[in-house]
Amino acid sequence: MKGYELGRIFGFLMANRVLRSASGAGQRLKTDEAEIAQFWEIQASEEERLFFDAFLGSQGFKLVRYDSFEMEGIPKDQYVYLLVRDGRGDLSPWADSDQAVEAVRCKLEKSLEPKDSARVWLALIWFSMLHLQYPRIARGFSEVSEYQRAVFDKDQLAEAVREALEKQRSIQDAQPSVIREILLSTDKPQIPNRVNRFLAHMESIGHLQKTEAGIYQQTLLAAAEIAMGLEDGLGLLAEADDEADEIPTPFGQTERAFELAEESEIGQEPEF
Question: How confident is the model at residue 3 (pLDDT cuts 50, 70, 90)?
Fold first, then answer.
């Protein structure tokens, strides 16, 4: 078994999450990326593949392959491997949401807001982004191949968050909750600042790609992980709202996520 080559593949995937045989328009391959991809595609034995799958699975990962015949956006006759988080396995280093929480955490007066409050803001912004990437374009969460249509600008995301808050403020008889208290109790929620830092974080972990100034597109990696997440708990958050089977709202999904976490139905530290 070629331990050195497997180590190179694992190291590259852990650092980049994506392994490509060729770069797309306007992109560049990482150092040794094509060589590593070619080894895994052509030279790796069945024994090595089975071993590597089991090794990744024990750490909460799954290796997924797409090529140009099944997925638009991949150069002709080329292929891509994605290191996708598998929520059914043990938690991986990528499941630590602390960096995402810190990205949206703001300073209130002279001190940072509590981390628990920042987690709620993170969930609302993340669900607002999903709303732009899925329901807004009439796309199902399992439709991975539609990732190139999931384009939005930062102002749209900030406005989606703002609308979610204003809609809740207009509801006179809403049931009180910790989530409502956190999100609606401040006159200066610093939405643009939170959104900008959230987008920078999502870009840094390969879930968003900036196509031009202020414009973002979902990546194939993010789409694949969302689709897999439907089987691992996200489906509980994609169900219709109780009233009139409406599409879930970002605010409603945020409340639901923390309710499920308290009931241990989904992880206490959801992945963003």
Answer: confident
Q: Band the pLDDT of 269: cuts 50, 70, 90.
A: very low
Domain boundary among 59, 94, 129: 94
* Domain housing 245: 98-262
How many angstroms separate the CA atoms of 214 and 199, rounded?
10
Is the predicted pLDDT of residue 6 greater than 50, yes or no?
yes
Give yes or no for a contact between 220 and 227, defined as CB atoms under 8 angstroms apart.
no
Single-letter amino acid, residue 196: N
Number of domains in the chain: 2
| DSSP string for 139-202 | --TT-GGGGGG-EEEHHHHHHHHHHHHHHHHT-TTPPP-HHHHHHHS-S---HHHHHHHHHHHH
Do 142 and 174 reside in the same domain of the chain?
A: yes
Instruction: Please give the Cα distance from 10 to 7 (Å, whole number).
Output: 5
pLDDT bucket at 263, cuts 50 / 70 / 90:
low
Instruction: Tell which of 44, 74, 94 closes a domain.
Output: 94
Q: 24: how many CB neighbours lie within 10 A of its CB?
A: 14
Please answer whether residues 264 and 130 qualify as being in contact, where contact means their C-beta atoms are separated by less than 8 angstroms.
no
